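Lay summary. Proteins are chains of building blocks that fold into shapes, and those shapes determine what they do. In this project we predict the shape from the chain. Here is one chain we studied, written as its sequence of building blocks.
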Amino acid sequence: MQEDGSLLLFQDGRISILTLDGTQREVACNLCPANDRFNDVVADPEGRVFAGALGGSGRLYRIDRDGAVVELFEGFGVPNGMGFTADVKRMYFTDSKLRRIYLFDYDRFTGNLSNQRIFAEIPEVEGLPDGMTTDAEGCVWVALWFGSRLKRYRPDGTLEREVYFPVTQVTAVAFGGADLDDIYVTTAASKISDAMKPPGYNEVAPRGGGLYHLRISGVSGRPLYRSRIEFKR
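And here is the predicted shape, written in a compact code that computers can read:
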């Protein structure tokens, strides 16, 4: 979301703006020609946007506030959920295909990332890490495609809890509401990732496609950063 409340829509190498009155306008194109499309994105404290691109050699891009696109890394499987630590000194980044959540050192002044290491790994039988977010305590929440659950990790990488759902393909998690204590969880009915299904996956179980809402005592989110990108007209 942009600072003015409009939405940035990341598509197949294109970015469009959806304004508050419902008008959609394309503002950039041909941004990731070596990949099929963008996937998850996240804004940083300075208004930049980090965006993963999948298909081919998965890449991580940074879109600066002037609209310039910088390729940071390549060679990922399926770039996915991202987020920042509470002190804004590190950034999380998910590779679904490798079932890993990475941690980078993050330079707020330049937007550069360095010192890539593994924060958490998901066992193969539990599915693929998908969308993620962080909460007010600095814990990491990750949705598990094929895994029927959310996982919550402490900042030191230890697993704190799991929350299960009656469908298998849990895709993303976000906090909302006036006090950020409403948890919204998306699920998917698609079979697009079946090539990566884990051993013993129950293909006749309900996959999903619905939106879930829950509250957990003592758990709340923190405000997300908003992008402030000015695209050339």
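What the prediction tells us: The mean pLDDT is 95.
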